[in-house]
Amino acid sequence: MGSQDIEMSNGFDYCQEYKGLQVLHAHHQIKELQTILRDKNTSRSDFKFYADRLIRLVIEESLNQLPFTDCKVVTPTGATYNGLKYRSGNCGVSIVRSGESMEQGLRDCCRSIRIGKILVESDADTHEARVVYARFPEDIAQRHVLLMYPIMSTGNTVSKAVHVLKEHGVKQECIILSNLFCTPQAVQTVLDAYPKIKILTSEVHPVAPNHFGQKYFGTD
Amino acid sequence: MAAKINTLDPPSSASSDSDIEETQADFSEVFPDCEIEEEKSGDFYNTPASPITVPYCPRPPSTGSQKSPRSRRQRTSSLNQAAKKTAAECIIRTQHRTIYTAGRPPWYNSEGQKVEPFVIGICGGSASGKTTVAEKIIESLGVPWVTLLSMDSFYKVLNEKQHEIADKNEYNFDHPDAFDFDLLISTLQRLKEGRKVEVPIYNFVTHSRETRTKTMYGANVIIFEGILTFHNTKVNEMLDMKIFVDTDADVRLARRLRRDISERGRDLDGVLKQYTSMVQPSFNHYIAPLMSHADIIVPRGGENEVAIQLIVQHVQTQLQLRGLKLREELAQAYAINKQPRPDTVKLLPTTPQIRGLHTFIRNKDTPRDEFIFYSKRLIRLVIEYTLSLMTFVDKTVETPQGVLYHGKRMATGNICGVSILRAGETMEQAVCDVCKDIRIGKILIQTNLQTGEPELYYLRLPKDIKDYKVILMDATVATGAAAMMAIRVLLDHDVLESNILIVSLLMAESGVQSIAYAFPKVQIVTTAIDPEINDKFYVLPGIGNFGDRYFGTEPSEY
Description:
The structure holds two protein chains of two kinds. Chain A has seven helices and twelve strands. By secondary structure, chain A is α/β, with parallel strands linked by helices. Chain A is globular. Chain B is of the alpha/beta class. Chain B has two domains: 49-323, P-loop containing nucleotide triphosphate hydrolases (Rossmann fold, 3-Layer(aba) Sandwich), CATH 3.40.50; 328-551, Rossmann fold. The interface between A and B is large, with 47 and 49 residues. Chain A: Belongs to the UPRTase family. Chain A: Keywords: Cytoplasm, GTP-binding, Nucleotide-binding, Nucleus.
């Protein structure tokens, strides 16, 4: 799908550099969603509608990263289908506030998945990120974690969140970051600090659409 | 006779005025899930797929002005073999399932190409019994789908002066100039091509066409009847068989007298005057000579059983030669020659998610709520994928961050969805979720349990559908017979073949092949392709009956 140059422009070249980075297949239609979200003239209702579509696609793709085992089932026609079964023991963690916009998308795919939350604030003076609030399922250390945060520009917030998860005993290789837009710098910051986590995004671009959270929740 | 057919015509239609309540009840009883609306909104073709009857279309006043409103002779109509049965006979009940028979069977062959209908022209003087002959032929033919087109629909619109003449019983309705042959030829041509036509409804009181028209479709057999059927050479070329009904002048006059006096309350002198001054001379001048064009001349009209049997035998032989055993042929065609999968087939990348979702919905033990949930997810994925197949153009936008962003925009704004009832309906929600304010049309196709063939029952499409990219939705495609019928319907509504995408969750290899080779420009989108179909035309390993599982209408035992 999609020609090479478009894939490049969406950040596929960074994938070669970082094993942990994966960029959504750049269909033109995904590009259209990104265009609408970045356009400053997009109305809020359109913005939310198309953001939800893009989130759904990113979440569906993130779920592909989760572990599964093969299994056989019998179909109503009596034939056998070689399918697969996802392992249970996953959970979502959203980073407040913009990460919460992705919770619904995850709920739409996994009805009863547990969802934890982290609130990270950056200090007004030092710009250092600090964790204000964190609440996870008790057994998070045994789970695969889908960390949700749509816009990554510096990577500090996510680094901090991953740090908290590690403190709770989550293994690096069990963390998958679901992200819509990120900058090359953020990818570098996060993956240099935590090389084993996986980042799944729809676009790597030097300019991040930082208005996302405000426009999505309507607080601008 | 005609009136009788009208009232008994069960699956009739949106536009027939008399039977609406009945029809609605029938449909809603049988398909409680599908909403049958009868509103005549201008935005939609409101078209019954199955037999079409004409609303009130009075007998033409070859007899002069109309005095009695009682004469409801039904002329132009499509009718169905089942029309002669009672409504109850058209419903088959098996294993607690109710199935409505009598839709429109295939009108194209396994390559998706239309099989030309057999067109029978019936000509003869007024009151010679043309309609009776036509009805007898239909009755004996046993063909499920017949369209009866009457020349009466094509009378010219009269201007004021002609109107006055007509009021004085002096306008000659039996003269060739009274007919609009251009419109007639184009209508017949389109019918012969199997396309949808709008047949005018002529009002014999105002001598003009009503704003409403009658929607008709081509059929396996088209019967065209009228007093001057063979007058135009172009029309003659389109007729596969020409029948002249030759009834004695005395008999015809006697019939006219009885009809006009007792049924229409006209006086003897007026009728006789009109007969001698116009009807009789026109017959001698224009109609009688047409006998030389005829293949068969039927003396004594409808009473002539021998002649009608001969005609029917000939037509049946002709129809058999054109053969329509679609589904079987489709299933076999693939087994014989396996061809490479064409590039119009777009299979979603088989990610673990897609396989995982398939595992849920294919498992026969999956409870219905999970089945619905996971099907919806899969549907969403396939619809999103479908949108990525549209044409896109470059677009540069300004961002709040102050930089320009070079992105894409969909080139076509006009996308509409059309679902094939019932399983396709499950996909409508997903289309609405990804395309704001999208228009959704519906096509109802059911399999006739006796013949195993798909039949078209109902359709409702956006009015200007020819300008749209159409996402045609059906949950599963086995032989491809229903999908092909739906595509054929869209093409008959002038949708470009390259503007059609057929989208489904699961297809059988043979169905994919049949559709792809029949309609090489139609894009086929699916999440999985299974290798085979069983003798009941279910996909293997398959999902089972998707619609039944989704809507919870499975029969208690498989």
